[in-house]
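User: Assemble these into one structure.

Assistant: Restating your components, then the assembled model:
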Amino acid sequence: MPIKTAIFYLLIITSGLFISCDKANNNGTLVEDISAFNNAVSNAKPGDVIILKNGIWKDAELIFKGEGTEKKPITLKAEIAGEVFIEGVSNLQISGNHLEVHGLFFRNGHSPSENVISFRTNEKEVANYAKVTNCVILDFNNLERDQDNLWVQFYGKHNELSNCYIAGKTNGGPTVRVDLKGNQSIRNFHKISNNHFGPRPRKGGARGETIQLGSSFTSMSPSNTTIANNLFEECNGEVEIISSKTNFNIIKNNVFYKSEGSVVTRHGNYVTIDGNYFIGDGVNEQYGGIRIINTGHWVTNNLFYKLKGKSFRSPLAVMNGIPKSPLNRYNQVTDVVVAYNTYVDSSSPWQFGVGTNIAQADVLPKSEIRSARPLRTEVVNNVIYNSEGDPNPIIEHDKADGVTFESNIIYNNGVAIANDHGLIAKELSLTEIGKDLSVPITGFDDVVIYEGFDFESITNDLLGNSRNESNKIGAILNAANVNLDLLDKSKYGAYWFSDVKESKEVKTFNVKSTEALVTALNEAESGDIINLINETYQLPKSLVINKTITIKSEGKAEIIYNGAASTPAIELHPYGKLTLQNINLKGTTTQFAFASLKENMSNHFGLAVIDSEISNFNYALKVYKQSFSEEIIFKNTTISNCENGIELSEETNDRGDYNTEYLTIDNCLFTDIKQNVIDYYRGGYDESTIGGNLLVTNSTFTNCGAKEQNKTLLNHRGIINVNITKNTFENNPVQFISTLWGAKNNVASDNQISNSGKIATEENLKQKLMY
Amino acid sequence: MPIKTAIFYLLIITSGLFISCDKANNNGTLVEDISAFNNAVSNAKPGDVIILKNGIWKDAELIFKGEGTEKKPITLKAEIAGEVFIEGVSNLQISGNHLEVHGLFFRNGHSPSENVISFRTNEKEVANYAKVTNCVILDFNNLERDQDNLWVQFYGKHNELSNCYIAGKTNGGPTVRVDLKGNQSIRNFHKISNNHFGPRPRKGGARGETIQLGSSFTSMSPSNTTIANNLFEECNGEVEIISSKTNFNIIKNNVFYKSEGSVVTRHGNYVTIDGNYFIGDGVNEQYGGIRIINTGHWVTNNLFYKLKGKSFRSPLAVMNGIPKSPLNRYNQVTDVVVAYNTYVDSSSPWQFGVGTNIAQADVLPKSEIRSARPLRTEVVNNVIYNSEGDPNPIIEHDKADGVTFESNIIYNNGVAIANDHGLIAKELSLTEIGKDLSVPITGFDDVVIYEGFDFESITNDLLGNSRNESNKIGAILNAANVNLDLLDKSKYGAYWFSDVKESKEVKTFNVKSTEALVTALNEAESGDIINLINETYQLPKSLVINKTITIKSEGKAEIIYNGAASTPAIELHPYGKLTLQNINLKGTTTQFAFASLKENMSNHFGLAVIDSEISNFNYALKVYKQSFSEEIIFKNTTISNCENGIELSEETNDRGDYNTEYLTIDNCLFTDIKQNVIDYYRGGYDESTIGGNLLVTNSTFTNCGAKEQNKTLLNHRGIINVNITKNTFENNPVQFISTLWGAKNNVASDNQISNSGKIATEENLKQKLMY
C-alpha cells in the first residue's frame, strides 16, 4: 500500500473513531443504534454516507438533518437494501438540503406522529432537494382506522419519492400528501416517480386517497408537482386515487391498473394529465378514469381500457360546479381541453354535468347545489372503440352546451348512437400493442385534426412518438415495434422487493377437540383450513381469528359457546378473515356469535358464513366502531333466536364512514331476531362516497323485528347501494321492511310480503353536511 | 436618382394607386375615410404602416386586424400624433399578431360597444403582441352613468398599453380591464406601463376602478400582467385604484398621487407590489395604500407618504377573510410578505383584521362573516417615521396572531406606543430625496435584517440600488445623487399631450336683464362669473348650466321663475357646476329650484348655494337617477315654503350607487318644507363602498316634515358617513329627526331639539346583498 493511501485510510479510521465507535470506511459510517445515528447525522458533511446496520430498528424515530450539496449529497442508507427493518413505533423526518435515503423497509409498526416519512423536522425546517428511494412501507397502520395519518408527507421543494413500494394502508388519510402551507413549500417541483403503489384496501368512506396534492386551503397555490411513471395497482381506498388540489401539477405516464377510483382534479387548476393508462377488466364498475373539476386542465394522450365505471367513476367525468362555490366545494369547469385520448371498450366514456343535484334543492343549502355547467371546454381529436356497440357513449347529466366537440371518431359495431355531438362513425379494428392490450391505430388518417389554442404544445403521443410530422387524432400514432408490458415490475418500486406471493400449499388441520382447535388456530398459516371432525365442541373462550382461515366440517359440527356474556364465540382481529362453513354455532343467549375488537382494529377483517346455523346469541354479529371489512357474506345460513342480528352501525360521527364495503345476505333464513336484524349505517352528506353495498336476496325473514324501535326491519340509512330482491317477509311485526333512498341506488324488487309492513322510499334523505 | 430607386418608388406609388386613391409612400398608406382604412387593413403586410389622416374621424368603428411579425409589425398611426381625433360613436378593435397603434385621440364621444379599445375583434380572434401607445382617451363617457363599459379591454397575450393619457371616466366600469376568460388570454404577460392615468372623478358607489386585472370568475387563472412606471393622479373613482383579481401580477414602480383609493389584491394570489410611491397630503383621509386579501402576495420596497386613510384605506390594510369563502368574496390572507417598506407621516399605517364583521352575525348570512385572521404572514424589515408621534401605529381590528413582526423600527417623536409588536424605537431624521419628498435613510444600520424564506429574491431597493452588498431595512438604502420629481410628466402619458390647463383670466358678465343673463351664460367660458346688477329677474325658461359658472349679485338680486310646473329654474347639465351666491330664487310653488337632467347625464354636475334664499318651489333640488355630483353644498342659505327639500334618492337599484359624494348643509335655515327635507340614499350591502358623506351643521329646521311618510326628518339610509351636529330642530311634526347607522360612521352631537322627535340609532342596518 503506498504511503499516501495508508495515511488516507488512517485518517478515515481515526475520524470514525472520533465520532463514535461505529465502523467507518470510505463507503460511509455504519451505525448500530439511534444514538450513533444521531451522532453521525449531527456530524455529517457533504458527501457523507450514514449506513444503518442490518436488522430490526425498533421504535426508531429517525431525524435526518443535514446540508449536502448538489454534487455531494448526504446519504442515509441500509447496510443492505431491504435488510434494515424499521418497526414498532417509528418514523423518519428529513430536513436540510441535498439528502438521500435508500433501502429502508417500514413494517410491523406504525408512526408516533402524523406521518411515517416527513420532509421536514419541524414547522420551520423543511427539506429541499431530498430524495427517498428504493424504500418500502408495508401495512404500517395506526392502531385505529380513525387515527388518520400520512405515510409520506412532502414539504419544502424539489423533493423526490422514487422507486418505492408502498401498500396496505387501511387507516384514514392519504398515503402520500404534498403539503403547501407556507411559501417554503410552493412551486415545489417535487417528483413522485417510478413507485409501485400496491393494494390499498377499500377504506369505507372518505380520506382514503393514494396521493393528495395539497388541500382546499392551499388550492390557490402553485404546486408544480410531477407524478410520473408510477404503477397504481388495486388502489381502492376511496373514489379518488390521486386528488389534485393545487395548481400546475403534472400527472404523466402512469399506469392505473384495476384501481377502484379516479384521478380527480378536486381543487386547483391547470393540471396536465397526459399519457396515462387506465386499465380495467370490463366488469368491475368501481374502476374509474379522470374526474374533472375547476379550470384549465389538459387531458391528453391517455388510454382508457375496459373501464365500466359510471357517473363519478366514468372514464371522463366532467362535473357541474356550484356557482360562486365556497373554497372547499366545487368550482365550475372552464377552459378544459380533452384531446387525443383513446377509449377502448369503456362504457359511456364521456359524462358531463356529473354531480348535478338541482333536484335536491329542497334538502340542501344553496351553497351545495351544483348547477354551473362546463364552459369553454374542448373535447376534440379523440377516438372511441367499442367491440360491443354503446348506444350512449356521451351522457349529459346536465347539458354540455359549453363544450366544443370536434374531430372525434367512434367505432360502435353498428349500434346507433343517441346524442352523438358530431361523433364520426368509422370502421376500425384493433392492433395488439402489448400483453392484453389492443387499440385502434389505423383507419382514421383522413380525419381533420382540430387545432385548438396552444395545441402545438401537445408534441408527443402516448408512446412518445412526435406529433410534429404526421399527426393524427387519438392517443397513439403508430404501433411499430411496440410490445408493452404495463405490469413489468422492474420499472416500478424498490428493486430489492417483490410483492409476488409464493404459492403455498393449503394445510388442513383435522381437529377433534376444542383444545386441538385452539392449537390449530395458533399454528395455522394464512389460508389454511381447520376441519372439525367431531360432532360437538364446547367452547369456553373466544376463538381468535387473526389470519385468513377456514373453519368447516363435513357433518355440520356443533360449536356451543358458553363464555362470558357480551363476549364473542369468534373474535375477529386485524387481518382476521374467516370462512365458516357447515357449522352449527350456538350460544347461551347472552353472547355474540361474531365480533370485531373494540379497539386497535389496525387492519381489516373479513367474514363469510356459509351453509351454517347461528342461534341463541345476543348478537349474531357485532362490529365495533373503527372496525372495517371489505366483504361480509352470509349464505345458505340460518340465524335464529337472537336478541340482535347483524349490526354494523357504529360509525355515527357522520364523516361518511361505514363498517363494511359489501354486506351480502343470500339465501338465508332469519327467524325470531328481536331487533337490529340488519343494521348497516353510513352518515354524512358526501356526494363522492359511493358505498356501502347491501344485497339481501333469496332470503326469508320470519317473526323478526319485534323490539325494533324505529319499526323498520332492515335498517340501512345512508348506504348508497341497496338491493332487496326475491325475499320473503312473513309475520314481522314492523311498520316498514325498508326505507329506500330514492336519489341513490336503492332498489327493491320481487319480494313477497305478508303481514310485515311495507317497503317505503324517501327520495332525498336529510344528511348532516360533512364540509 | 438611380434607376433601381426610381423603379422602387414607382412600384410603391403604383401599389398605392391600386389599393385606393389614398396617398402612399415609403412611410405608409395614408387613409382618409373608413372604407379606405378597411381596405388598407385587409391588404396590410408585415411592416406596413397605415396612416389616419389628420382631422376628426366621427362615428368611426375601427377594426384593425393583421398579421405582422416581431421584426415587421403592422402599424396604425395618426398622420400627426394627437391630430387625429376619434369622436362621436367610435371605437377601436384589434386582433392578430404584432400590431401597433400610435397617436390617436379619443374625445367628444363614446363607444358603441362595451369598450373603447379592445384587444380582440370577436370571441375567437384576439390580439397578441399588440401595442397601443402614445394615445389619449379623454372624457369618452357613455351617456348614462349606469351604462357600464371599459375604455381599454385586454384579451390575448403579450399586449401593451403604454405612454397613454387616460382620464375623466365617470360612467360605471373600470377604465382598463384585463380579461382572462379562455386559455388564449391566460399567462398573458401584458404590460401597462408609463401611462398617465389622470383624474377619474368619484363615481359614487362601486365599479369605478382604474385598472382591474380579471374578475372573481377568473381568479384562479395565472395572469402575469405587469403594471409598471405609471402615474395615477387623482384616480378617485372608488376604493380600489387597481383591483388585482388574478395570479402572479406585478405592480411595480408606479406613483399613486393623491388618489382616493388603494391597490387591492381583491382576488387571486401571489401578486408582487414592489417599489411604488403612495403619496398623500397629510389631510385627505381618502388616499389609501395597499389592501391585502388572499395568499402569497409580496409587498416590498414601497414608500407610503403622508397618507391619512383609515381601515379599508389604511396604508397597509390586511383583511380578515371568510372561512371557506365563496369564490366572489374574501379568502383568508396567508403567506403574505410585507418587507422593506417605509412609512412617513402616515396614520396607523398597519391595520389587521380589516373588515372583520363578526358583530354583524345577526344581520348577515354566515357566508358573509369575515372571521378568518391572517396566517403565516410576515411584516418585517420596515421603517416607520412619524413627525408627530402616533400612539397606535398598529391597529388590530381582529388579532394579528398569525403575523410575524420582526426587525421593524419606528421614530415616533417620543410618543409612547400601545401594542407595539416589537417595534424598535429609533431616533431618526429625514433626508430630502426630491421635490416635497423626505424620508429616513440613516440611523438604523445596526438593525439585524430578518431573513425570511426566499428573501434573497428582494434584490433591489425602491430606487434600484442593489441589496446584495450593504443591505438594510426600509425601502431606500441611500439617497446619494437622488433628486426625484415624481410628477415629471415627460415620463408618463402621450408625449404630444399635456393635461396642464393654461391659466385663464376670469371674466365677469354684468347683466341687467334675463335676456342678457341667458346670453352671458351662452358666451361665458368655464370659470367665468355672471353678476346680476338689477334687483329682479323674471325667468320664463330654465337656465342651462353646462360649465363651471358663478351667478351672484351684490344686493341679493331676486330671480322669479314662472316656467312650467315640474321644470327647474336652473337645470344642471353634464359638466355644469354652479355656484349661486347672494341670490333670492323664488318659484310659484309647482317648479323645481334646481334639477339635473332626467337622462344623458354623461358627466358630473356640481352645486354650491351660498348666502341665498330658495322659496316657493315644489322641490328645492331634484336629482334624477344616474346623475352624480362630487359635492353639493348649501351654506348660509334659507330654504322655505317648499313641498320638497333636497332629494338625492333615486339610486334605488341597491348596487351601492348614490347621487352625490358629499352633501353639506352649513348654517342654513329650513322652514316649512313638507317632505323629503333631506333625502339622500345609498342601497346594497357593500362593505367596500365607503361613501357618501352627509354633514348637517349649524342649521335650523322649523315646521318641516309634516307630510313625511316615514315620520323622519333627515333621511339618509345607507349613507356611510353622517354627521349631524350643532343644529336646532324646532316644532317639526316627525317621530324621528334621523336614524343613524351605528355600525358605520354615523354620529350626532350638540343638537338642540324641541318638539321634533328624536335621533335614533340602528346598529346594523339590514341591506340587500349585492353579491
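Residues 281-485 of chain B form one domain.
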